[in-house]
Each structure stands twice: as C-alpha cells, then as structure tokens.
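User: Predict the complex with pyridoxal-5'-phosphate.
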Amino acid sequence: MALVNIHFLNLQNNYLFADIAKKVNAFKVMHPKADVISLGIGDVTQPLCPAVIEAMHKAVDEMATPEGFRGYGPEQGYDFLREAILKNDFRQRGIHLDIDEVFINDGAKSDTGNFQELLHWDNFIGVTDPIYPVYIDSNVMIGRCGVYKDGHWTNVRYMPTKAENGFIPELPKGRPVDVIYLCYPNNPTGTVITKQELRKWVNYALKNDALILYDAAYQAYIRDPEIPHSIYEIRGARKCAVEFHSYSKTAGFTGIRCGYTIVPKEVSVATFEGERISLNQLWLRRQCTKFNGTSYISQRAAEAIYTPEGKKQIQQTIDYYMENAAKMLSTLRSLGYECYGGENAPYVWMKTPDGMSSWSFFEALLYGANVVCTPGVGFGPSGEGYVRFTAFGTHERTNEALERIKAWNK
Ligand SMILES: *Cc1c(COP(=O)(O)O)cnc(C)c1O
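Assistant: Here is the predicted structure with pyridoxal-5'-phosphate placed in the model:
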C-alpha cells in the first residue's frame, strides 16, 4: 500500500493568491464591466532587456550547430556565469568567494524551499513574521513545524516585525533557534536591515551554532548605500549563512528561471556525535542527484545582465518600478495612510485604517476602487492589519489605480 506523506496534509490549503483570485473572480462575475487593476501578486510586467534578448538568440543559434550544441551542463552551473557573479555581485563589494561556493539555480523559490532537506527534521526554525510563505511551508512538508493552531505553527518561532518595533525583529529569547530565515529587502513589508542589525543575527548564529538562510532576492532594489546587499558583508557570515539570489525581480526572469545560491565552504552543521558536516559538499551531492542544471540559454541570458549594457538596461527597469513605489508612497501618505517599505524594495506595506482587518480592507478596496492589494495576514499573523501593494505594474495602471484610490477616499 502506498502511503501518503502525512505532513503534506498539514499544509494550510488556503493558498493566499488562490483565495485572492477567487474573491476577485466573484467580484467580476457580479460586475462584468468593471476594470480591475491588480497591485497584488508579485510578478513583473516589463519585458526582458535588449542585452538579455540578444544573448538568448545567440545561445539558441549556437545550439543549432553541431559544434555549439550543449546537452546536460554542470549541475552547479556554467563557469562563465559563476565567474560573472563572483566578479560583479561580490568582489566589487569586497567579498571574496570561490567559484565552487556558487550554485546556479532555476530561481530562488526552489532553493529556499529545498535547502532545508539537508537538515535534521527536529531543528527548530525561526522566521520573521510576516514572511514569504515558502520558508514555513517547505518545513511543514517534512514535519518540522508541529501543528497549526490559531494562525501559528507550534514548532516555529515567529519574530514579529511591525510598526511598533520599527520592523526590526528581536533576537529570539528562550529556546535557541537552530535555523533562521531572513529576507532583506523584505517581501512582503519592503523594509530593509542595517549592517548593525544584521551583525546581531550573525553573532547570534555564531554563538548558538545556528544556520541563517538569507534570501536576497530583492537586493538590486537597494538604493541606500548603507544597506547591505549580501549577508557576507558582515564578518563571520561565511561561517553561518547560506544566501539565495534570483534574477526574477532583478531582470524580469520570472518566466526565464535563473538565480543562484551561495553555500560557503566554511558553513557546517553537526551530527549528534559532534562531527561537522560541510553544507557545501552536501548541497553539491543533493543537487547532482536531484537537479540537472538550469538551461544553457537561461544562463547565457543571466550572464548578459552583467555586461555594461545589460547593467544599464536592468537598472532602467528597476528605476521604472521604483518610480511606481515612490508614487504609491506619496499618494497613500497624502491620503493619511501609514506606509512602510517602498524605498529600497518594490513593495509598499500599508497599515489599514481604523484597525480594519487585512481582508476587510482588501474587499473594501476591491469593491470601492476596483483595485486589488494583498492582505498582509496571508503572510503570517503579524501581517494582520496591513496590506501589500506591489510596484511591478506599468506606470499607466499604477497611476490609474492611485487616482481611483484618491477618488474612493473622498
Ligand atoms: C520572488 C521571490 C523569490 C524568487 O523566486 P524565483 O523562484 O527566483 O522566481 C524568492 N524569494 C522571495 C522572498 C521572493 O519574493
């Protein structure tokens, strides 16, 4: 008899974006003529930049010849891309990593979800709250989170980030956390972490022999020169942290699928006997078994982002989205809403007025202005009373949405 992995049955099946789609569809059925604008889901809208398109065409043409054809590539990625990453994303910031510490992935979702496989099932995980749902759900699937009660998993340490604490998570007290997920700039709150605050986490991890899984998917949106782009800007981090990157938000690769993961050779975890196991070795072994690499064409596309033209072009698109973010911040604030994020990240995190719940505000905005936002509570209990707006829309649609919100507020 084939038995199910019962941990999957513990997953909360109300997937946030499916719930939103359901409510939006119900609205559309009742109001078939309404033109709904979504500032909800975190997908990008601007096309790939010319440097990327050119590199992809070239790679396809290469594949069309016997000499240029490529079959299976290295599981950990081609050296041309790994070199470009080391040079542009790290060496220029004074971080020196080895090429075999870089693993090309097919997007950060896979690796942030899969990495926990290397860890014992009864590690105690900690997450900032609210947070990107992949971290918790991937741990639920392996039975690490306990049971779900009153919006919380019993075996997860939630570290709230809200207006009251300036969106700065506090170090866990009591039972030490073994594995810490951090995401900066943050999805969903759009807030960032200073070097000084991040150093506290690295020191905590070193002191408690904990592992930090650091998601830097939005690092390209950082504008403030004081904010770290990588956890390896902090001394000691290469002993305790793994870092995930994605080209999805950096260069519009949500449909191309490419990113990378840094697993420093110095990061190790323990056996019960006290032996130290290198995560770099273990991750390589895991990838060679379960992953056959990101496509050659995608990797050539990613390489093109690091050319002078590529850099300029992706920056233009990032600036385009950040213009939306600035407009959202100023408009919503002028209407009296309390807003956070949006300055070093493509998300604006807004407190709902008069203590409204996230879902009540979501519905009010949908029915009143025909604009879709994301209810903050969908990202965790501390997201209750907030909604998220994304800056990934076009200027036209974003401006139109803001005009409607203004009119609705009158
Ligand atoms: C979008 C996003 C990712 C990246 O996902 P991909 O699989 O690379 O498209 C990773 N982490 C967070 C927090 C995100 O919002």
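The pocket of pyridoxal-5'-phosphate is lined by residues 42, 107-109, 112, 132, 183, 187, 215, 217, 246, 248-249, 254, 259 (CB under 6 Å).
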